[in-house]
Amino acid sequence: MPTRAGDLGAGLACALGAGLAWGLVFVAPVMLPGYPAAVLSVGRYAAFGLIALALAWSAREPLGRLTRADWAEAARLSLVGNLLYYACLAAAIQTAGVPLPTMLIGTLPLVIAVVSNLTDRALPWTRLAPSLAVIAAGIALVNHAEYERLRTASSDAGPRLLMGTVLALGAVVCWTWYPIRNARWMRANPGFSPATWATAQGLTTLPLALAGWAVVAVWHALRPLQAGDGGGAFDFPLGSQPWAFIGLMAAIGLAASWLGTLLWNQASRLLPTSLVGQLIVFETLSALAYGFLWRGEPPGAGAAAGIALLVLGVVIGVRTFQHAPD
Description:
Elements (H helix, E strand, L loop, with lengths): L4 H18 L5 H4 L5 H20 L3 H5 L3 H29 L2 H7 L2 H13 L4 H29 L3 H32 L5 H29 L19 H29 L2 H4 L4 H15 L5 H21 L5
Helix pairs in contact: 1-11, 1-13, 3-5, 3-10, 3-11, 5-6, 5-9, 5-10, 6-8, 6-9, 6-13, 7-9, 8-9, 8-14, 10-11
């Protein structure tokens, strides 16, 4: 069934807003380079959970209608799409910088399309080949540009690039699963608002984040954490910049976690899954823009060409899937 023009416009706007909010999380690890990825992950989602707890009273009636199965689904989405995803992403960014993990995450629109096609075979693989080829070329260009940048800055560029790639691919796996599963729940439960489901995920995230914080604390007691920038032992629990850490975690907990989830839930409701998955490109482009602004330099020619190819590949993918059966 074709998407109505009003739904398409509103869904695109919601996906854009979510992308702008989620792009912020890519610069948080480089704004606090001395903080281990695990601390950044549990800190961000503890903040998300506390914000959801504060909002839960006003949403107590619809939250009370959620079943035990719904709460279990929210917990699974929170564990994989929140904690595991961001731990992998933050570690990748601290290891290899912002652009490389961002570009690997930028393959998500196409990866989700491929996974969806494996499930329902909505399109013949020959129609996917052009966008796959363009995306692959873009990734190759950016990876080469980032390797050269790391090689000139560090003698261990190869291992750092490899480790950053592995961690970023772990984040890709987590966020391939999350939006497909989340969209299915939203479609199956039209009686619940996107805000209610975002708050429910935040509430289930809180105990997971607190449990994660306890695990990190025990790990630190047995084997002290090292600062993310290699600057020696980490000053657990709040690090050397406690107010900056608390403020940044609160900001991304509200903007990137709760608001971003709300907007994405609404986009998932308004648009076909085969289309909404493509719009994660807004997160990629936002993250790249924030990352290069933080670095204080424009992308080089190779990275710029790779970005252009990535955008082109996603545009081709969107056009290919836009009219596909959902």
